[in-house]
């Protein structure tokens, strides 16, 4: 029996699986897992059990596994990390992903993972018995289910934690915007303050009700957003533009999309993606956005969603006053 960790874990596990079908009850599979484990055509007939709809399984990786002829089984609530062949058993902490937090690929680090690898026939037999019980609570997936899996994956990926060195949204926008590239987080500048009564009717008819927000004069939804490409879990940084001035509204998470965008219920988020966003910081960001509005880079009064990655690019454009005059947090 061997205790493995870090790079030794990856190399020995990959070597143990080579050239033969295997079973793996491993909850999460991220981008790069197939390459990390060195899987090839010889893996045809292998069986993988995972929590496919958890949002922590990358649909592209599952597609690769399907293409290799691997059977994929969904086991809701699975949290095990067991790899098994006729000759070897590995059990430990290592997902074929980065701990289920939505990190993957170059974000995937196995330095803190560890586990035990054994060739003991008795232990392998025990693991086979355990796996038989897993089969009884699992269902085999088909490739046409990947679209639904992708919805869950994108929502969780969007909410993955930021690198710990980043603490404020302003720092991300002005100097670390690469972490925004695949996240669904948007800017919205709007002019109307009160939605028409029929939009309130749609909101309440669907069972949404936020008395505390409404009593504070806040409208807990966007409206007439039929042209928006928006979905549950998206984040929206919003400002109100009136009289030539820009006022910070909120950072909100989308709860639903009603009647094709006629009403988009949201709820405020104090620390989006774990980042600080206090009123002074939001006002500084707003001053820079005002410059973009004045230059015509952002259209007002037509409400639109601008990806924050795009906003960051605009703020770095030469000639945008104040775009890069503030130092970002050090690495």
Question: In a nutshell, what does this entry contain?
Answer:
The chain has helices at 6-17, 33-37, 59-67, 121-136, 146-158, 169-175, 197-205, 211-215, 279-294, 308-315, and strands spanning 2-5, 23-26, 47-50, 71-74, 81-84, 89-92, 114-118, 139-140, 185-190, 221-223, 235-242, 245-254, 263-268, 305-307. It has 331 residues and is an alpha+beta fold.
Describe this structure in words.
The protein has 331 residues and is of the alpha+beta class. The protein folds into 2 domains: 2-158, 2-Layer Sandwich (Endonuclease, Chain A), CATH 3.30.870; 169-315, no CATH class. 30% of the residues lie in helices and 20% in strands. The chain has 10 helices and 14 strands. It has an 8-stranded mixed beta sheet, sandwiched between helices. It has a 6-stranded mixed beta sheet with strand order 10-13-12-11-9-14. Strand 2 (23-26), helix 2 (33-37) and strand 3 (47-50) form a beta-alpha-beta unit. The chain is elongated, with a radius of gyration of 24 Å. It starts with a strand and ends in a 16-residue tail after the last helix. The model is unreliable at 98-103, 106-111 and 321-331 (pLDDT under 50).
